[in-house]
Amino acid sequence: xxxxxxxxxxxxxxxxxxxxxxxxxxxxxxxVETTAVPVEIAIVQASDVQEEIDATGVVRAHYDANxxxxxxxxxxxxxxxxxxxxxxxxxxxxxxxxxxxxDVQKSRAQLDIAAASDAKMQSxxxxxxxxxxxxxISESEIEQARLLATTTRGEHELTKAVLGLAExxxxxxxxxxxxxxxxxxxxxxxxxxxxxxxxxxxIVQIDTLEIHFDxxxxxxxxxxxxxxxxVTVPAFPGNLFHGIVKSIAIKASESTRTYPVEVLLANxxxxxxxxxxxxxxxxxxxxxxxxxxxxxAVLRRNGKTVVLVDVNSTAKSKAVTVSSERGAEVxxxxxxxxxxxxxxxxxxxxxxxxxxxxxx
Length: 360
Prior knowledge:
Layout: H1 2-35, E1 36-43, E2 46-68, E3 73-78, E4 85-86, E5 91-95, H2 98-133, H3 139-171, E6 174-176, E7 181-186, E8 193-194, E9 199-215, H4 217-220, E10 228-232, E11 241-248, E12 259-266, E13 277-294, E14 299-301, E15 304-311, E16 314-319, E17 321-326, E18 329-334, E19 341-345, E20 355-358
Helix pairs in contact: 2-3
């Protein structure tokens, strides 16, 4: 019996040793599999890059106006309805002008009378001045003639002004376009009464457009009015449009601390519409011999900005300084050199000193 127990104990010890050996082999296999991490690299190269300000803005009409009636009246006719393209000065809405036409006729008649009276009084004054020089009339008589001539001249000028007002009132019965563009809304129907100051229609000019966007304070000194801008509109993929910087705000927005900027854009085809989004790129300079790498290759580790490079199949951490961002890329001003083997795929799972294997 004692020998049997010793025998069973030996078997148990042997099984335990075999189990430990199996676990050890498994752990070794795992370590072997995870020691060399597959990565992809890119050879760092120095290149020349353009410095550019990129922004997204909203397209607006260069001119967009709500046009009001200048006088009270009944709508007689809609000359140009919604969607009509008009030139500056074209009539859009006509009001009933019968009263204004009568006023013009009356004012012209009054002007004719005043003009004739003025001419007669001036002629009489010339004759009276000659008589006064020859002592044929008294001083009081010449003074009366002069006063009468002055009064009739004033009445003549007054009737001219009255006629001008009547003609303006007649012209105001035509609500016209202040600039060339397209009618986008009409706010009155035929037969309706409109009041002076009431909005009659809206007109928008889209031959030229404005793109409004904001620029951070760090970039504003690089901008100048007249700089060319390249514009892309998501609604027109693959198309490039060209504009110029129209204005740069001298004061930052109180809420965003950024500076509003406007770019002027020709829109001869009238394809781009107000309200669309647009991406604007403005070249502000050129840098030569700089290091540009994918932004995804730059990591934050222990409060430092670092990249990982391949040195003899080992990942080595290098602290770098990022000077600017270029969308999906960044410009490195220090820490990397041309020829470095930058890890661009797999870097997130690596530590300084990790073994790596470069894949194609």
